[in-house]
Amino acid sequence: MQRILSEALASHAGRKVTIAGWIHRRRLLKSVAFLILRDRAGLAQVLVTDPAVRAQLELLGEETVVQITGLVVANAAAPGGAELTEPEITALSEPVTDLPVELHRPTLAATLPTLLDHAAVTLRHPSRTAVFALSAALVRGFRTTLDQAGYTEIFTPKIVGSATESGANVFELDYFGRKAYLAQSPQFYKQTMVGVFERVYEVGPAFRAEPSDTARHLAEFLSLDVELGFIEDQRDVMTVLREVLAGMLASAQGFGFDLPTVPAEIPILHFAEALKIAGADPAELDLAPADERALGEWALREHGSDFLFVEGYPTAKRAFYTHPEPGGSAYSRGFDLLFRGLELVSGAQRLHRHDDYVAAIAARGDAIEPYADFLEVFRRGMPPHGGFAIGLERFVARLVGASNIREVTLFPRDLHRVTP
Ligand code: AMO
């Protein structure tokens, strides 16, 4: 018997078919019973009139995995406009304990710890599933946009020999008796690969030993990294980022979320102006979360935009590889993209000359030696280049209005959680 998906029922009216999935819900009425089956495509209604099948159904709990063969009949009141009748039900696997949540309710009523402790089950709820379908579509859009623009996808190691972002929040591990780290970012490798492919991207995990227990930090997140050569300055990178965001959102239509549009020109503020608008102390070297929120409101009010670029962050607060504004300026060619008042992306033009790296590292009082492998490529000819990294979970959390990044992460890792 041909097995079809729930969504295809209506197109098989009048035929005998088999569907398979989980018992989402049972409704045992006086004269008839309904079984709502859930598969990867959605829900299907099964009408039970035979007393023997009804007696069988009464013994099958929710989330039992079943295969059902029956006759498809058009029914405007059923999900998808058709239902399966005269069913023969085969149970393939029966749950052995009660469910931690009621999956058949339209909204999942559970605390965050319950959602996460039982993630493999709570993720079955259609509201949670939709979030991860959205994430996958965003990543697909990221890849497609960059593939079409001539970028090469790279896969770089996540066990690395040195920290890239800052020494403090790096996970150290014992690597055959030597010290190694979990990569905080593919930063060095993506820059290095500009020297090979000119334009590269990577989709991969990034690890941060984040001591901050906040609603927007994870110890492991998905970093969408881009790096490109032959740029004038950070503005070229920001243009690419705009295209990438538009491509991601275009690919994410159709999952039931109301998605924003990316303006043709995302407003840009210089860091110093941003501090003023946020009402922050002009001596500050970074934007606090409250400043970012105020700037998000400003961008929406003044420009009708959910997105805002802030460029020219002080060099002292950015990573050593960031290109400063020329002429002895204290500002850099580093930028952030704020989305609805939250930092979603960091990027910059990078240094590309060997001597500039040596000077920048020395100016920070750091030793050159740990960076020797990275610096080698800058002795061999590197074009002016820059790039950025988007935090996927932050993007999704803001898009779906989740108040905590953990809600949109399959199996979040944080200060307190390393299981399930
Ligand atoms: P940065 O450290 O700002 O930049 O990270 C880039 C983006 O990744 C996301 N992000 C996080 N998401 C969840 N939990 C975390 N702990 C976390 N930390 C960062 C944010 C952030 O904007 N190498 C540079 C990027 C570059 O210049 O190309 C970097 O890693 O959305």
TrEMBL record:
<keyword id="KW-0067">ATP-binding</keyword>
<dbReference type="InterPro" id="IPR002312">
    <property type="entry name" value="Asp/Asn-tRNA-synth_IIb"/>
</dbReference>
<keyword id="KW-0648">Protein biosynthesis</keyword>
<feature type="binding site">
    <location>
        <position position="208"/>
    </location>
    <ligand>
        <name>L-aspartate</name>
    </ligand>
</feature>
<feature type="binding site">
    <location>
        <begin position="208"/>
        <end position="210"/>
    </location>
    <ligand>
        <name>ATP</name>
    </ligand>
</feature>
<comment type="subunit">
    <text>Homodimer.</text>
</comment>
<dbReference type="GO" id="GO:0050560">
    <property type="term" value="F:aspartate-tRNA(Asn) ligase activity"/>
</dbReference>
<feature type="site" description="Important for tRNA non-discrimination">
    <location>
        <position position="79"/>
    </location>
</feature>
<dbReference type="InterPro" id="IPR045864">
    <property type="entry name" value="aa-tRNA-synth_II/BPL/LPL"/>
</dbReference>
<dbReference type="GO" id="GO:0005524">
    <property type="term" value="F:ATP binding"/>
</dbReference>
<comment type="function">
    <text>Aspartyl-tRNA synthetase with relaxed tRNA specificity since it is able to aspartylate not only its cognate tRNA(Asp) but also tRNA(Asn). Reaction proceeds in two steps: L-aspartate is first activated by ATP to form Asp-AMP and then transferred to the acceptor end of tRNA(Asp/Asn).</text>
</comment>
<dbReference type="InterPro" id="IPR004364">
    <property type="entry name" value="Aa-tRNA-synt_II"/>
</dbReference>
<keyword id="KW-0436">Ligase</keyword>
<feature type="binding site">
    <location>
        <position position="343"/>
    </location>
    <ligand>
        <name>ATP</name>
    </ligand>
</feature>
<feature type="binding site">
    <location>
        <begin position="216"/>
        <end position="218"/>
    </location>
    <ligand>
        <name>ATP</name>
    </ligand>
</feature>
<protein>
    <recommendedName>
        <fullName>Aspartate--tRNA(Asp/Asn) ligase</fullName>
        <ecNumber>6.1.1.23</ecNumber>
    </recommendedName>
</protein>
<dbReference type="InterPro" id="IPR012340">
    <property type="entry name" value="NA-bd_OB-fold"/>
</dbReference>
<keyword id="KW-0030">Aminoacyl-tRNA synthetase</keyword>
<feature type="binding site">
    <location>
        <position position="165"/>
    </location>
    <ligand>
        <name>L-aspartate</name>
    </ligand>
</feature>
<dbReference type="InterPro" id="IPR006195">
    <property type="entry name" value="aa-tRNA-synth_II"/>
</dbReference>
<feature type="binding site">
    <location>
        <begin position="391"/>
        <end position="394"/>
    </location>
    <ligand>
        <name>ATP</name>
    </ligand>
</feature>
<dbReference type="GO" id="GO:0005829">
    <property type="term" value="C:cytosol"/>
</dbReference>
<feature type="binding site">
    <location>
        <position position="350"/>
    </location>
    <ligand>
        <name>L-aspartate</name>
    </ligand>
</feature>
<dbReference type="Pfam" id="PF01336">
    <property type="entry name" value="tRNA_anti-codon"/>
</dbReference>
<feature type="binding site">
    <location>
        <position position="346"/>
    </location>
    <ligand>
        <name>L-aspartate</name>
    </ligand>
</feature>
<feature type="domain" description="Aminoacyl-transfer RNA synthetases class-II family profile">
    <location>
        <begin position="132"/>
        <end position="420"/>
    </location>
</feature>
<feature type="region of interest" description="Aspartate">
    <location>
        <begin position="187"/>
        <end position="190"/>
    </location>
</feature>
<dbReference type="InterPro" id="IPR004523">
    <property type="entry name" value="Asp-tRNA_synthase_2"/>
</dbReference>
<keyword id="KW-0547">Nucleotide-binding</keyword>
<dbReference type="GO" id="GO:0003723">
    <property type="term" value="F:RNA binding"/>
</dbReference>
<comment type="similarity">
    <text>Belongs to the class-II aminoacyl-tRNA synthetase family. Type 2 subfamily.</text>
</comment>
<keyword id="KW-0963">Cytoplasm</keyword>
<dbReference type="Pfam" id="PF00152">
    <property type="entry name" value="tRNA-synt_2"/>
</dbReference>
<dbReference type="InterPro" id="IPR004365">
    <property type="entry name" value="NA-bd_OB_tRNA"/>
</dbReference>
<dbReference type="GO" id="GO:0006422">
    <property type="term" value="P:aspartyl-tRNA aminoacylation"/>
</dbReference>
<dbReference type="GO" id="GO:0017101">
    <property type="term" value="C:aminoacyl-tRNA synthetase multienzyme complex"/>
</dbReference>
<dbReference type="GO" id="GO:0004815">
    <property type="term" value="F:aspartate-tRNA ligase activity"/>
</dbReference>
